[in-house]
Every structure is written in structure tokens, then in C-alpha cells.
Amino acid sequence: MAKCPVVTLADGNKIPALGLGTWKSAPSQVYEAVLEAIRVGYRHIDCALVYLNEPEVGRAIGHAIKEGLITREELFITTKCWNSFHSKQKVLECCNRSLRALGLDYIDLYLVHWPQAYKEGGDLFPKDENGHIQLADIDYLETWEGMEECKRKGLVRSIGVSNFNSEQITRLVKSCEIKPVMNQIECHPYLTQKKLIALCEDFQIKTTAYSPLGSPDRPWAPKGEKTLMEDDTVKTIAKKHGVTPAQVLIRYPIERGLISIPKSTNKARIAENFKVLNFSLDPADVEILNGLDKNFRVCVLDADVNSKYYPFNIPY
Hints:
Layout: E1 6-8, E2 14-16, E3 20-21, H1 27-40, E4 44-46, H2 54-66, E5 76-81, H3 88-102, E6 107-112, E7 117-118, E8 135-136, H4 140-152, E9 156-162, H5 166-175, E10 182-186, H6 194-202, E11 206-210, H7 232-241, H8 245-255, E12 259-260, H9 267-274, H10 283-290
Parallel strand pairs: 3-4, 4-5, 5-6, 6-9, 9-10, 10-11, 11-12
Antiparallel strand pairs: 1-2, 7-8
Helix pairs in contact: 1-2, 1-9, 2-3, 3-4, 7-8
């Protein structure tokens, strides 16, 4: 079995460079997917409260530990604080909710899922009578105080953010007591994020690339859209290495020193995705893939565009 490279975070904790993403994984399928991933060799599982499948993920983790496939210490579990839990006390409530759902004593990496906040105390996606998301004016700096408290209480080992832009990262780093060690962002050859990643590196913040395949199965994809996996350049590089286009795309963030978290519930694909550890892309391949950048973002959450903390209103 290929050994997964690890990335050392600024706080000294180590994160496997390849993880299993669970966004869009149906609860009925994610139990088997996580179990299979652990059997294949994955040691990093990426979760979130809002994915509505943490209990099933937790059941699979518990099963794997009970069967002796793995120990808790060998696993790295990431999950995220949702937008409707952004006040300081609510962050702790959200964290404890995820811990209960996952059946864990601690979370390895806890992230603020988005910088913008929703109205608290009700639905995960609270809406007004016109069907618009009910935003809340809660500064993510307050949210971060709750994250720091989670770490101080030992509920989590590391804390970070997700979908934060350059200005938000800079402002947070300048004001916080415990610095974020991770920014999880959409990243693939059509959205290389070079400037944001470089800024994060300056602050000793690592980057996780979500949707490394460009999320071809996203519900809002335009009909007939040509996917990243169908890109001729990606296919040419795949042919050169004797691998699939998907494997090239999953390997690409790893070659850049990032964490890659492809999602799948298909057993064959879970195993195929893990085989990206069996080959490397040449530096020239990475440069060619970098050249495909067209600032094409698939995960925009544009219902939140009116929040003053919406992250995608500036270039990066």
C-alpha cells in the first residue's frame, strides 16, 4: 500500500495530503464509502455539519476502530462550523454537535465553513417569506473567538478557515490569539488560486483543495458543460503517465504542497483515487495545468452575495 505524504501544520499537527471528501455524499452511501476508504488506506476524512451525514461517517469510523482496521490516533478528521452558528457560544454548540454525531472525543481540524453568517436558532438555511437567505451581521472575528475556545477546551486539535479571501485572512491573522493553520478553498486547474495560496503561505497557513475535479456532479452545473476531466490538456497528461484524467486532477494539488480531498461513494473510484500516491506529475506538467487557470469557480453560494462578509466580491 502506498504511503500517503503528510503536511505539517504551523501548530505541529500533521495532516495526510489525501483525504476523502464527503460533500454531496448521501447518508445511505457514505457509511460504506468511509469504511471502504479506510480499508483502502485513507486516513483523512473531511466532513461538515451541513453535509447532514456526520452520524453515518461516525458510525463507519466507529466500526473501523472496533474491527481493528485503524486506531483513532491514526485517523485525521476535519469538520466545519456552519454559518448559522457564528456567535461565539454557538460555535461551541456546533462543535459539540459534530462531536456527538461523529462519536468522537476530539476533532483533528475544525474550520469556519464560510466567513458570512446566517440567522441563528433555526434552520441551517434560514429563509424569509420571499425565500431569501436570512443573513446575520456577525463578524467572523467573533466566530474565531469561539474557535479558539474549542481548541483551548481540547475539543479540537487544530483550527482553521474555509472560503476566506485574502483580506479576511489578513484581518483575522492580525487580530487573533491563536492563528488559523488552514484555509480550505476550491482549487483545480481552472481556479489555481496561486495568489491566495501564496498569501496563506506567508502566514504559515496551509491550503486544502476542495472540488479538485471541478465538481462535475454539482446540482447546478449547466447542461452539456465540458468538464475538467474532458479537458484535452488534462487527458494528454493522463495518457503520458498511464493514469486517468481524474487521477491527474487529484494529484495536482498534492504536487503543489496542498491537501486534496476528492469525494466519491463509488468503491472502485475510491480505490482508484487512492492510487494517485503511486505516481508523480513532473514540474512541467504542473506548470501546464497552472496555465489552464481561467478563474472559473463552481462553488459560489451566490445566495449570500449581499453579506458584507461574502468572500468572492474581490479578485482573491
